[in-house]
Structure formats: structure tokens, C-alpha cells
User: Fold this.
Amino acid sequence: MKLRPHIVLCALWLLIGAGIQRSNAQENPDDKAHITPRATPTPTPASSKPTQPQQKPNQYEPPPFPGDAPGTPPAEKRQGGYDRPAFPGDAPGTSATGESSSRDSQIDLSAKPETKETAPAEDSSVLQPWDPHKAAKDVEVGQYYYKVKNYRAALERFNHALIYKPDDAEATLGLAMTQEKLDLLSMADQNYRKYLKILPNGPKSREAEAALKRIGPGVATSKASSANDPAAAAAHDLQVGESYLSSNNFDAARERFEDAVRLTPDNPLVYFRLGQALQGMQQLEPARLNFRKYLELDPKGKFAQNAKKAISDIDYILGK
Assistant:
């Protein structure tokens, strides 16, 4: 049987291709192992179960509190807490160790309430408003009234200036001069001397010394007549009290009227003036009694209507 040539050629080609493929496979490095085995055995993985941390002694040291002296060691940990410096307000001798916030805030029901001693209230009569500007303005207005001979108005202004500035030299001298014009010689004598005490070498010191010499005999006479004649002394007290009343110096006026009442207890005008002074001091019940005393002594007097109106006003305020 004759083989065809092309079949023979195909067979030869296949045999040649298979030989070439075998030789390439022997020389290919990919046929070798890529990973070199370890010399040591592979470690076994640890268990995934969490382990409890080992208990260690607490070595924490709290930092020092603010305000501790330099070099002071921090507080040591104790069974119930740690030492702390005493807080403001802690009772003397109280331990500074706090065990817990709940124990620190415990309330002692058996403790007595603390009583704070209240300071005694200051006497309001001692407190005086201080305003030199208002005092200077009152002195200026008072000097104007003195020049135009309105002595009552001048007296009120000078007294008002001394409320805002008690040791004002000009107001003191102006008050003394005005009191001299109103024939209040004993009071003028006091204020002239007060001016010389404030300004011994002041610009008006010579005038004040001359005024003291001028009114000296009159002051001595008024003192002698007051000692020998209670009515004259009461009249003088009444006049002085009215001058205080005109300047709203109610307390000084009250003292003068009370002296006049003791000297002349049958003078109705003194009771009326005393009632006005007490009313200005807001002592309404005593003021009402004096107004009623005035109406009792002089029911149709010059100030009867004023006394009745004052009693009505006080009844309305007091409700009886």
C-alpha cells in the first residue's frame, strides 16, 4: 500500500514538534518550586480568647492641689480616699480626708443653726450728705439774701449749706452774721467762735473778733435775764427754735421748744411749734398730742386751723 507523501510529511512534522516541546519543558524554570520550606516549624496561632490583665498595685499618685507650697509631696492614697488641703469654710480641726462626695455632703441634723451676730445699725443722725458744690451754691444764695436783708431766707440757706459741708467757714460766718441781725445773739456768739476755730487767721477773722466784742454785752444780758426771768428765756428758746424750724433742722428745733415748754407750760404757741418739729421728724403720735394740747389751751388761736389739719393728716396716716 502506497502512502501518500503529504501524509508522511504531516507525521514527521508532528514527531518533530513533540520533541521540541519536551526539550523546552525540561529547561523551563517555572517547573521548579517557588517557595522554600522553612527550617523551623510553623508556630501555632494564639488563642483568640481575651486574657485577664495581671493585677498590679496602684501606683498612681495624685498631683498636688493648687496652692500647695513648693516641694510638698502629693497626697498618698488611703483606704477611704486621699488627703486634701482644707477647703475655705471647713471647721477648725476637721479632717481633710474625704471618703466620697456623698459622705462629704452629709447633713448633721443634730447640729444647731449658726447665729450670725449682726452689727449694730449706724446712727442715721451721724451720717451727713457730703456735697461741697451744693454747699458753695447755698452760700452764694445766702449771701445774696443777706445783702437784700432777707435774713430768714439767708438763715435757711446757710443752715442748708452746713448740712452738705458741716465745717464750711463761709457758711458758718454767714450764719453768725445773719443770727446777729435776727437778734439771736447767743447762737451768733457760738458761730463766730466756730469760724475762728476753723480759720484762726482767715480773711474774716478780724471781723469775727470785732463781732464777738460787739455782741458780748448783749449775750451776757440775755443769759442773766434768762436766769431771772423764765418767760424771757422761753421766748428766746422759742425764737431760736423757730429759726431752726425754718431751716428744717427739726431735731435742734425740738430741743429748743422742749426747753420752752418746761419754762412756760401754759404757752400754747410752744406746743404748736413743738408739734411741727416732731411732725418733721416723723414722730407722728407725739406731734398729734402737742397739736391737741395747743387746741386745748387756745381753741380759737391763730394756728387753730393749722393744728386741726395737721391732726387730720396724722389720723389718716396712722389710721385712727
Observations:
- The CA atoms of residues 47 and 53 lie 15 Å apart.
